[in-house]
Amino acid sequence: MTTAVETRTTLRIGPYQVDPPVVLAPMAGITNVAFRTLCREFGSATSLYVCEMITARAVVERNEKTLHMMAFGPGERPRSMQLYGVDPKTLGEAVRIVVGEGWADHIDVNLGCPVPKVTRLGGGAALPYKRRLFQQIVRTMVAAAEPAGVPVTFKFRIGIDDDHHTYLDTGRIAEAEGAAAVALHARTAAQRYSGSADWSAIARLKEAVTTIPVLGNGDIFSAADALTMVAETGCDGVVVGRGCLGRPWLFAELSAALRGEPIPVAPALGRVGEILYRHAVLLSDHDGEDKAMRDIRKHMAWYLMGFPVGSDLRRRFATVTGLAELQDLIGLLDPTAPFPADAEGPRGRQGSPGKVVLPEGWLDDPEDATVPTAADVMHSGG
User: Fold this and answer.
1) Would you say the pTM of this structure is higher than 0.70?
2) Residues annotated as part of the active site
């Protein structure tokens, strides 16, 4: 545990001391202002909680839906926003708008999404293969953010597949061009979310990138996992995604572990019900009750995972239509049921590995800096 605790005062991203060194990964449709608020309430106010992915083109066009997605809580500092894009000019303009309007204090860049609708445009996990294009993106974004003192970080994967690893070059280029930190999801795009993360790649990236922080991501489902990752890889902090789905209190456990404090006892079902209801209220405050109820349904299986809840009651939770109904359903749960040990493991997307969909000829020349046709047509939510 000593190794992990010693790192807690060393993670600085731009002007921000991240203590403990824990980052909530941006997750589309998940890490909106409601969920981030919950995670912050359990974790440390000085950790980082990143907004769901925002498309740079939509920022430039000031898309109304996008501006709503970009909402931050009144006390949320630093405000972390993740941008997606492929064209350096569009990304640079988006950064100038974001910092000019004072909308964010930290900007992260999505280079890890393996979804076909993203990679077929050359975005997400496909982009780092084009080294010169990536270099132009880092240089342009850092230059646009620098006058406002806003740090820019980059989150990426090991590579496209086992035959096309890119992470070491990606880390070195980001470091050379002024990135404030890098984070590695230790899977290839072809793996998607299946199998196991290869934490040894995080250690290799840490050896290659020496002047900025290197964060590790992948398969952190408990406080013990975070301590092990730091001890095995020497990474400067951990990025947590699927592990906190339906379990925002994981941030309390991570904070305690990384500070060398006793880890809080996991909540019984009664307390989980209270947290679930709070989540729904926060969503309602942001989106209105109707949309909030549609949104909260996908969280139900995660919150109730492993607990003794009958199939009929689970179905009713999954089709809930209002806060009053949700409160009634929570009242039917056994409040004394302890948190189940088998709910500590993987949750959220897993699926199967598959071939990565790429633009035609994408692998022909990694030095080609041409922006793919229609690369920035996507709007928010990807």
Assistant:
1) yes
2) 113
